[in-house]
Design goal:
The N and C termini lie far apart (61 Å). Helix 3 packs parallel to helix 5. By secondary structure, this protein is mostly helical. It is built from five helices and four strands. The chain is elongated and about 50 Å long.
Amino acid sequence: MRIYTKTGDAGLTSLIGGTRVPKSSLRIDCYGTVDELNSYVGLLRDQDVNASRREVLKEIQDRLFTIGSHLATDPQAPSASRRLPDLLPADISRLEAEMDRMDQVLAPLREFILPGGHPAVSFGHVARCVCRRAERLAVHLREESPVEDLVVMYLNRLSDYLFVLSRAMAHELGVAEVTWKPRV
C-alpha cells in the first residue's frame, strides 16, 4: 500500500465517516495537535531518565491515539462508522495516581519555575505546552461541535502530569529548578 493517495492535494481531507473538510478546519487542527503531542510524548519515552516510566508513557500515547480517533470522526456520521476505542475515567485516574506517586519525592512548589535545565526536562515542558494547546483547541471545537467531556478532561490532566513529570525528571537528574524572579 502506498502512503500517498493524492486525495489531499486540493487542501481537503476525510474525517472518519467520509466527510471531506478543509485541512485548515478546527477539527483537523485539534487532532493534528494531539498527534504532535503524541510525538513529544514519544520523545519523552525515549529519554533514559524515563526508563521506569516507559510503559506509562506508552499507555499515554495509546490514549492520545484514542483521543485523535474521536476528534477525527465526523460526529454526524452514521453510528456504524463511529466505532471508536474507549476513553475511560480510569485513564484519568491513572494520570492522577502517577502524579501523586511522583509528588511524594518532590519539594512543595511555592514559586513558578522556568522550563529547562536538561534536554529531557525541556522536552517535558514542550510536551506540556503542546498539551495545553491541544486542550484549548478541543475546548474551542466543543463550542461548535460535539467533543466528549473525557477528551477535554484527559488533556487537562495530562498537561498536569507532564508538568509533574518534568519536575520529577529534574529531581532525578539532579537539576536545580530555576524559579522565576519577576522584576519589580
